[in-house]
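Handover notes (outgoing to incoming on-call)

Open items:
1. Putative redox-active protein: sequence verified, structure written out, both below. Nothing else pending on this one.
2. Nothing else urgent.
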Amino acid sequence: MKYSDEIILKAYQSGYEYEGTRGNCAQCVLAALMDTIGGIEDNIFQAAYGLHGGTVSNGVGTCGALAGAIIAIGTRYGRDRAAFDRGEKECKNDLLARELCNKFFEVYGGLTCEKVQTAIMGRSFNMKDPEERKLYLACGGHVDKCTSVVGNAAKWTIEILNQFEE
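Putative redox-active protein structure tokens:
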């Protein structure tokens, strides 16, 4: 099923708004996709909680928005338990997730929270340090910076699905 430009825009806007008002980049991407294209169960949403801020706000792991988007793709095209038990190692998920990673490299110069923050704010922040967190917020982290990353991740996910779905 192909998704309309209206759905893609709504996903961007929802992700942007969720990140600004509720936080947790991974869950915000998933919520935006749940609202627009569905197919993500609440237990998946719940399991993504610790992926925010480069893995529980450590900043050095994978960008949470990217992680949430890859999870969303995986709910459709990831290797299921039966394929795992048969020893199958490849699935369509890899192709789609690589497309998304390529977008992150192209726009943000990398896949980590640290790289994304540097691309959008000129530096990265240690979110576990209260003073660094204040600086992050003062730089617009939850106003227009990480909000746009979340919006883009939701948007790009649907655009990539559109390329590969019938």
